[in-house]
Amino acid sequence: MTQHRTLVKICGLSSPETLRATIAAGADMAGFVFFERSPRHIDLETARTLGLMAQDRISRVALTVDARDAELDEIVDALAPDMLQLHGKESPERVAAVKARFDLPVIKAIGVATPEDVARASAYRGADVLLFDAKPAPDAAVPGGAGVSFDWNLLRNIGAANWMLSGGLDAENVAGALRVTKAPAVDVSSGVERERGVKDPARIADFIKAVRAL
Ligand SMILES: O=C(O)c1ccccc1NCC(=O)[C@H](O)[C@H](O)COP(=O)(O)O
């Protein structure tokens, strides 16, 4: 039986130092947040710098929340992402429209708290990758990156082909999460930070080491 390597995405990078550490540690994807209320938000000038640094070294993922086309145009122009991550309340139709407009693979985040939330994901067949994350509170100011996990058992026997697990992962719990879910890819933000919004190169390396040790 072929055992595929688990892919790792480090999300919410905002400095050259931590992007460099992420590439050196062997991550597959680097996520950049474009959402002004987030402590990880980057402006277009920073996106241009980090996008060039990452080019041909790691896949660049632009994360947005219910962004309009004009905003996405600017982000795509600045970062030149390899993928778009839609982390808001985008409908399946909106996901298809964004994919068609930018001709880029799309990751759609699905907030999970109940089996019904997992079932809801089947509507997003048009997305290239489904990212299962802890469901934010309806009134949350920032709908992700909160370091909160959910019941991984909800993802046992999941039918989706391309999907990622996220929500409250860190170097200590990621092995257990992968044992339960057998996820083909994992995504982390808070679990590799020294304080909210500040990535820690040592924690990034430890997280990737923990995944690769499996
Ligand atoms: O990171 C943010 O600040 C953010 C803001 C708005 C929407 C999504 C956001 N982050 C998403 C992620 O970083 C991850 O994909 C996921 O939520 C896991 O985060 P964490 O639980 O902190 O590891």
TrEMBL record:
UniProt cross-references to NCBIfam families, sorted A to Z: PRK01222.1-1
Catalytic reactions on record: N-(5-phospho-beta-D-ribosyl)anthranilate = 1-(2-carboxyphenylamino)-1-deoxy-D-ribulose 5-phosphate
Organism: Methylocystis echinoides
Protein name from the UniProt record: N-(5'-phosphoribosyl)anthranilate isomerase
Ranges of residues in domain N-(5'phosphoribosyl) anthranilate isomerase (PRAI): 8-209
PANTHER family in alphabetical order: N-(5'-PHOSPHORIBOSYL)ANTHRANILATE ISOMERASE (PTHR42894)
Family the entry assigns: Belongs to the TrpF family.
Source taxon at top rank: Bacteria
Pathway: Amino-acid biosynthesis; L-tryptophan biosynthesis; L-tryptophan from chorismate: step 3/5
Xref: Gene3D superfamilies: Aldolase class I
Gene that produces this protein: trpF
EC number: 5.3.1.24
Gene Ontology molecular function: phosphoribosylanthranilate isomerase activity
Pfam families linked to this entry: PRAI
